[in-house]
Amino acid sequence: MNMPAAGPNRKAAINWEVLTLEEALESLDPFASELSVDVLICVSHKCRKRRDLAKAHQLLGFVSRNGLETQGPLGNHLVPMLVECGSIASAREIFERSIYPNVHAWTSLISGYVQGGFYKHAWNLYRRMQASCVCINSYTLVALLKASLNLKEVQEAHLEIVEKGFENDLFVGSTLVDSYVKCGGLSEAHGVFSQMPVRSVVSWTALIAGYADNGLSEEAVDCYEQMQKQGFLPNEVTLICILKACATLRALVKGEEVHTDICQKGYCNPLLESTLVDMYAKCGSHLEAYAVLKKLSVQDVVAWNALIAGYVEYELGQEALTCFEQMQDGDVPVDAFTAVCVLKACGDTGASDKGFDVHTEIILKSFESDPFVGNTLVDMYGKCGLLVEARKVFDGLEVKDLVSWNAMLRGYGANYEGTKTLQLFECMQEHGMKPDAMTFTSVLSACSHVNCAQRGLDLFKLMSIDYAIIPTIDHFTCVVDLLARSGQLHEAEKLLGSMTGAQSKEMWLALLSACKSCSELDLGLNCFQHLIKIDPECSTPYMLMANMYANAGRWQEACKIEDFQRKICSEMGASCEFHSLVMNK
């Protein structure tokens, strides 16, 4: 830069506004004795715009060397400059030296604390600001809302907003809706939203996001439709939220409408695109999900995970594994969520070899410490019948939560290792782990497999009395099977009769099968009558009952059972074929 000639008016020859930041800082020392506060404020704005902390400290060094005053107007500009440049400590130092910091300095430092995660400091500074009688503006209140981490603090900030007369401010109102939503105050958020005289796409989106993130997907879709009717165009964030709601509701038609809007607006946002894949996958439209993924500008791990998870959710394990192979062919790095999804697919399909490969990948990427990964590994090995490997992973888990214990119990149970299931349950109790309904399903089933009727009945009582777990159909089915296997058929019938809720087909089938084994014709007929009321098209009860009659030499009744099934199927318009009855003389 060509410097102006020396002389009394040489400062006037410099247009500080057009200088670059580097040129301005270089020019400060030669004109130190002639500079006005306005010039230094101009340079501070350049530092703030660039967010260059090194240059900001260079300006502060000049101010300090020349003994310039930072307690007045200059200090009020240095504080926001330092906040924007990321030095909260320096900003606070200048702020505390200021005698009369203005609203911009106060608000900047509060915002700086929020950005740095120092929310308590932000609230304390706001209270000091109130005591200093400084006029608060909308930016101050927005910063305060962002510092509010729970519903009580948001409500306190809301009172401040009303007291200061900012309840009709669009910026403040939209942030207030968003703050209530993030703290779970959906009714309060809706109340604020309904009172807003003017709304924006931001306020609409905040409410839609609140509904979508809290499982109120129908309300999210309704809100989205109202927003459109009132002439507001959704932005990318709005579309992401509504796609999540469509995915939860399995609302494929609505999701397709949103997809059309995205295409028409030409949005190209990786997160939006991945959410679109996720919506189609969760709605069961996997071909469309795959087609969308292949057209993405960025086929990242999030998009692939969405597709793989969609296949797994619909028990399409082989398709999930094929998708994973394509992901690997594209050199897309896997993450812990990918590993969890692929392990589930391996367990569902019995693909133990692929499971071993994924386990190796998990070790290489140090995912084994992730509790979700570890628990899914146990589950996968258990489903594949590799109980030694499952137990090895289980024993090596840093933290064993209820999911871990249940996965190992389920693995033993699925492979008819009843004794080991019961031993592990005892170990679980010794470790102080409280069982849940799923735990008792595994344990009661194990008692049935090892013919421990009394132990099973004791555990059934323990579940209800000591742990206050309400028995489910699965629990009753296990106990009925337990009693039936041990020959206590009438006790099983009494248990079924004591049930106040819906009774499952599996319960009565277990009892009917036991009746056949024990030649209990009268009780078997009672079970049969219950079964044809529950599911008249199921062929198994007819076959069992006919066999019972045949074994007893009562051929006429056996034929009547066959005729009865044909009649039932004919009346219901069912295309069911009655299998040939195996009747042994």
Structure described in brief:
One of its GO terms (molecular function) is RNA binding. The protein contains 33 helices and no strands. It is mainly α and about 575 residues long.
Q: Can you characterise this structure?
A:
- This protein has helices spanning 21-28, 37-50, 53-65, 73-84, 88-97, 103-115, 119-131, 138-146, 151-163, 170-182, 186-195, 201-213, 217-229, 236-249, 252-265, 270-282, 286-295, 301-313, 317-329, 336-349, 352-364, 371-383, 387-396, 402-414, 418-430, 437-449, 453-465, 473-485, 489-498, 505-518, 521-534, 539-551, 555-572.
- By secondary structure, it is an all-alpha fold.
- The chain has a domain at 299-399: Serine Threonine Protein Phosphatase 5, Tetratricopeptide repeat, CATH 1.25.40.
- Helix 25 (418-430) runs antiparallel to helix 26 (437-449) and helix 26 packs antiparallel against helix 27 (453-465).
- The longest helix has 18 residues, at 555-572.
- It is elongated and about 120 Å long.
- Keywords: Repeat.
- One of its GO terms (molecular function) is RNA binding.
- PPR repeats lie at residues 102-136, 200-234, 300-334, 401-435.
Q: What does the radius of gyration come to?
A: 35 Å
State the secondary-structure class: mainly alpha
Strand content: under 5%
CATH topology name of one domain, in short, is Serine Threonine Protein Phosphatase 5, Tetratricopeptide repeat
Instruction: Give the overall form.
Output: elongated
Low-pLDDT stretches are: 1-9, 574-585
Number of helices: 33
Total strands: 0
Helix content: over 70%
- Residue-averaged pLDDT, rounded? 88
CATH class of one domain, please?
Answer: Mainly Alpha
Largest sheet: none
CATH architecture identity of one domain: Alpha Horseshoe
Distance between the termini: 113 Å
The oligomeric status of these chains comes to single chain
